[in-house]
Design a protein that fits this description.
Layout: H1 2-58, E1 64-68, E2 80-88, E3 91-99, E4 108-114, E5 120-128, H2 132-139, H3 167-185, H4 197-207, E6 213-218, E7 226-234, E8 237-245, E9 254-260, E10 266-274, H5 278-284, H6 313-330, H7 337-347, E11 353-358, E12 366-374, E13 377-385, E14 394-400, E15 406-414, H8 418-424, H9 453-470
C-alpha cells in the first residue's frame, strides 16, 4: 500500500514540477518578447527605410521627390509592406519593402529597387523568420543594374553559390509579384521635367519654408569646391544658393546643394549625388539642416544633423560646407574696406572709429592697408594673404595696435585646400589674447590644426606686424 502511494506520488510530482518549469520558462520568454519585439521591429523599420538610400547610392542614383504609393482598399497584395516612387535625373524608380512567400519554416523580409522597365536592380536583406540556412542564403543575394532580376528570372542565379531549395522559390514568388506590380503602375508615374536653376532653388527654399523666391541671379565664383552659386530673395531677405562637392572622403566625393542666409549660416541642405562609397553616400542622404537648426562655421555633422555616421565622409563634407560659408561671408568684401574695418573693430570692442585713411603698401603679402583711430588710440587695418600652404593661400583681415600686436582677425577666403580653409576659420584673436611677433597659431588661437596652412599664415601675420612696426 505504501509502495502504491509512493508510486502515485512520483507520478504526480514529476509532471507537476515539469509543468511549473514550463510555465515559468514560458512566462519568462513571453516577458522578454514583450520588451524586445518592439525594439526589433523598430530596428527592422529603420533598416528598411535606410535601404532605399543605400541601394540608390550603390547604383549611383540621386533620390528626389519620394512619394508613397498606397494600395487601394481590397487590392490583392500578399507580400508588399511599403511601396514608393522617386525621381533620379529624368527617370522614375520604385522602392519596395516586402515579405517573401512561406519558405521552409518562415519568411524573408527584404527591400528592392526597380526601374521603369520592371527590372529589379538592387536587393537588400532586412530580416526574417525563415530557418538559418534560408536566411544565410538570402543574405548572399546580389542584384545590380548590370545584372538585373527580370520577369522569368530565378533568384538562385543571383546568390553567389548559396542554395536554399525552399527559401529561394518563396523569394522568387514575391519578386514576380513586385515585377508585375511595377508593370501595372510604371505608366501612371510621370517622369520629372529637367530641373532649371529656378526650380532647384525654389524646391529647396520651399522645403524649409522661406516663402516665394524671386530675383535669382547666378554669380561667378572661383571658390574651391563650389560648382554653382546664385543669389536670390525670399520673404524680403537675401540668400545664397550653392551647389558644391566635398574633397575625397573614403573613396570619392559627395555633391550637395545649400542655402546660406545673410548671417553666413547654412539653413538648407539637399543631397545631389557623388562617387563616394555607398555607406558614405547613404549617410550623406540622412543629413538635415533647417533654419531652426542651422549649420555654422563652428558646427560639426553630428547626430543632431544626421541619423547615420560616416567617419571618412562627414569631415570632408564639413570642410566643404565651411568653404561655402566662407565664400558667402567674403561677399562682405563687396562693401568698402572702411566698412570692413569698422565691422572688425566693433567685433573686438573698439568704438568711436574715425580718421580712416588708406596707406600706400610696399609688401607683396599685403593687399590693403589703412590707419584709423578708435577713442584716442591709433590702429592699423590690413587685408593680406599667406604664401602657399598645402596647395594655396588664405586671405584675411587684421587690426594691429600701436604696440604692434594683432588684436583682431577675420577670415576672408582663399584657394587653400578645404581643410586648411576650414581651420583658418576657427582662428580667434582678441585684445585679451593678442598675436605678437613671438606667437604661433596654436590651440590657444584655433580649435583646429593645419600643419601646412598655419605656418604660412603665421609668416603673413608677422609680415603685417613688421610693416606696422616700421611705420611707427
Amino acid at each position: 500500500m505504501s509502495e502504491n502511494k509512493k508510486g502515485l506520488s512520483t507520478y504526480i510530482k514529476y509532471p507537476l514540477v515539469l509543468t511549473v518549469v514550463c510555465l515559468v520558462c514560458g512566462g519568462a520568454l513571453a516577458t522578454i518578447n514583450y520588451f524586445t519585439e518592439p525594439v526589433i521591429s523598430e530596428n527592422n523599420e529603420k533598416a528598411a527605410n535606410q535601404a532605399l538610400y543605400d541601394m540608390a547610392a550603390k547604383e549611383g542614383l540621386n533620390v528626389e521627390n519620394i512619394a508613397d504609393i498606397p494600395y487601394e482598399d481590397g487590392a490583392n497584395n500578399p507580400y508588399v509592406l511599403v511601396r514608393k516612387s522617386f525621381d533620379s535625373g529624368d527617370s522614375v524608380y520604385y522602392y519596395y519593402n516586402a515579405n517573401s512567400a512561406m519558405g521552409y519554416s518562415g519568411t524573408v523580409n527584404f527591400s528592392v529597387l526597380a526601374n521603369s522597365d520592371a527590372e529589379v536592380i538592387s536587393f537588400t536583406y532586412i530580416s526574417g523568420t525563415e530557418d538559418s540556412l534560408g536566411l544565410s542564403a538570402a543574405r548572399a543575394i546580389s542584384i545590380t543594374s548590370n545584372n538585373p532580376y527580370a520577369e522569368g528570372s530565378s533568384i538562385a542565379n543571383y546568390s553567389a553559390g548559396a542554395t536554399a531549395q525552399k527559401t529561394f522559390p518563396a523569394i522568387d514568388t514575391a519578386l514576380d509579384f513586385i515585377i508585375s506590380d511595377v508593370q501595372s503602375i510604371a505608366g501612371s508615374v510621370t517622369p520629372p521635367e529637367p530641373e532649371t536653376l529656378e526650380t532647384k532653388i525654389t524646391s529647396l527654399a520651399t522645403s524649409i519654408d522661406l516663402g516665394a523666391v524671386s530675383d535669382i541671379t547666378e554669380v561667378t565664383t572661383e571658390a574651391a569646391l563650389v560648382d554653382l552659386k546664385a543669389t536670390f530673395t525670399a520673404g524680403g531677405a537675401s540668400y545664397y544658393y550653392y551647389e558644391a562637392h566635398s574633397e575625397k572622403g573614403f573613396s570619392g566625393s559627395v555633391e550637395f546643394a545649400l542655402i546660406i542666409n545673410s548671417e553666413s549660416e547654412i539653413i538648407g541642405y539637399k543631397y545631389l549625388g557623388g562617387d563616394e562609397d555607398s555607406m558614405g553616400l547613404g549617410a550623406a542622404q540622412t543629413i538635415e539642416i533647417t533654419p531652426d537648426h542651422p549649420f555654422t562655421s563652428e558646427s560639426t555633422i553630428d547626430s543632431t544633423y544626421a541619423s547615420s555616421t560616416a567617419q571618412a565622409t562627414f569631415p570632408v563634407m564639413e570642410a566643404a560646407f565651411k568653404a561655402c560659408i566662407a565664400d558667402a561671408s567674403s561677399q562682405a568684401g563687396e562693401a568698402s574696406e572702411e566698412e570692413q574695418a569698422q565691422e572688425l573693430a566693433e567685433s573686438i570692442g573698439l568704438t568711436d572709429i574715425s580718421d580712416f585713411s588708406q596707406v600706400t603698401i610696399t609688401s607683396t603679402t599685403i593687399d590693403y592697408k589703412a590707419t584709423f583711430t578708435a577713442g584716442v588710440a591709433s590702429y592699423y587695418y590690413y587685408e593680406a594673404h599667406s604664401e602657399k600652404g598645402f596647395n594655396g593661400s588664405v586671405e584675411f583681415a587684421l587690426i594691429i595696435n600701436s604696440e604692434s600686436e594683432i588684436i583682431g582677425y577675420k577670415y576672408l577666403g582663399g584657394d587653400e585646400d578645404s581643410m586648411g580653409l576650414a581651420a583658418a576659420q576657427t582662428i580667434e584673436i582678441t585684445p585679451d589674447h593678442p598675436f605678437t611677433s613671438e606667437s604661433t597659431i596654436d590651440s590657444s588661437y584655433a580649435s583646429s590644426t593645419a600643419q601646412a596652412t598655419f605656418p604660412a599664415m603665421e609668416a603673413a601675420f608677422k609680415a603685417c606686424i613688421a610693416d606696422a612696426s616700421s611705420a611707427q
